[in-house]
Design a protein that fits this description.
This protein has nine helices and seven strands. A hairpin with a 4-residue loop joins strand 4 and strand 5. The chain is globular and about 55 Å long.
Length: about 270
C-alpha cells in the first residue's frame, strides 16, 4: 500500500500522549463559596491574558453560585474533546475523539482509547498520518507511579545507504521521493502498547477506525483543503488517484469518503 506519497513525508509522526487517571471529581455546586465570583475573563493583549491566567490559577475564584466554573483552555490550541462516564478522549478530529471514547465505554483503558483514536485519525486524515507513519508515546502508570516512553519510529530500508544513494547520482533526498520512505513504525507501536498496557484485544481497539474506513465519513473543511493542497499534485499517479481522488478530484466538504482497502488492512492488523 503506497500511501507514503500522500504523507508529505513518509516519516510523518503520530504523537500519542496518554494520561491514566483512575477518577476525576469535579467540585459540586453545593461546595462552591456562596460569595465567589469568576475572576477570569478572555481579554486581548499580553498583559491582560497573563492576568487572566493568574486569576484562573487562583482556585478560590473559580466558582460562582449556581454552576461549576472551570477555566476554558485557549481555543487556538485546544483539541476536539469527547467526554463520557468512562473518561475523556481528545484529538484533532471529533470522530477520532469519539472512537477513543467508544473504546473507553466498552471497557478499555486510556491506552486502548489512544490506539483507537490514533487509528481513526489515520483514516480521517490520510494526508497526515496512519498505518504508513510512525508513533511516539508517553504512558503514565498511576498505580506504579512510573512514566514509560515508546519510540516506534521506523528504520530506513535495509538496502538504503549513502553509497546506494551516491550510486544513483543523488546527494539529496526529495521529500516526495521513494528514497524518503522509512519502514512504518505505527503498527508495531500499537502492538507493543496493547501487549504491555491494554485491556482489550488490538482488533477491538481498531474496530472504530475500521468502521470509519469501511462505511465512510464526512470530510471536514480543513481536511478538504489539505486534500486539495497535498493530493492533487499526484493525480497523475493511477494507484493513488484510484484511492484518494474519487471521481478524479479531492473530496469536498461534507462528502463521504470511504477507504475499504484501509479497512481490510486494519482487519489484518487486528
Amino acid at each position: 500500500m503506497h500511501r507514503q506519497i500522500f504523507l508529505q513525508r513518509c516519516t510523518a509522526t503520530v504523537a500519542v500522549f496518554l494520561l491514566l487517571i483512575p477518577s476525576l471529581t469535579m467540585a459540586q455546586d453545593a461546595a462552591a463559596p456562596s460569595n465567589a465570583t469568576p475572576r477570569a475573563s478572555r481579554q486581548g493583549g499580553g498583559q491582560s491574558q497573563s492576568a487572566a491566567r493568574k486569576a484562573q490559577s487562583d482556585i478560590t475564584g473559580m466558582y460562582s453560585p449556581g454552576r461549576t466554573y472551570l477555566p476554558e483552555p485557549g481555543r487556538d490550541n485546544a483539541f476536539s474533546m469527547t467526554v463520557n462516564r468512562y473518561g475523556i478522549a481528545a484529538t484533532l478530529q471529533t470522530l477520532g475523539s469519539a472512537a477513543g471514547a467508544a473504546v473507553l465505554a466498552k471497557g478499555g483503558n486510556a491506552v486502548d482509547a489512544a490506539i483507537a483514536a490514533n487509528a481513526a485519525v489515520g483514516v480521517i486524515e490520510p494526508m497526515m498520518n496512519g498505518i504508513g507513519g510512525d508513533l511516539f508515546a508517553l504512558v503514565w502508570d498511576n498505580k506504579a507511579k512510573k512514566l514509560y516512553a515508546l519510540n516506534s519510529s521506523g528504520w530506513s530500508a535495509a538496502a538504503q545507504s549513502i553509497a546506494a544513494m551516491q550510486a544513483k547520482g543523488r546527494n539529496t533526498i526529495a521529500a516526495s521521493s521513494i528514497d524518503s520512505v522509512t519502514v512504518p513504525g505505527a503498527v508495531a507501536g500499537w502492538v507493543e502498547l496493547q501487549k504491555r498496557f491494554g485491556k482489550l484485544l488490538l482488533a477491538e481497539d481498531l474496530k472504530p477506525a475500521e468502521a470509519l474506513a469501511e462505511n465512510g465519513f464526512p470530510v471536514t473543511e480543513t481536511d478538504s483543503a489539505n486534500w486539495e493542497k497535498y493530493g492533487m499534485g499526484f493525480s497523475n499517479r493511477p494507484a493513488f488517484a484510484k484511492v484518494f481522488l474519487p471521481n478524479g478530484t479531492y473530496p469536498k466538504v461534507g462528502e463521504i469518503f470511504k477507504n475499504p482497502q484501509i479497512a481490510a488492512s486494519l482487519r489484518l492488523i487486528g
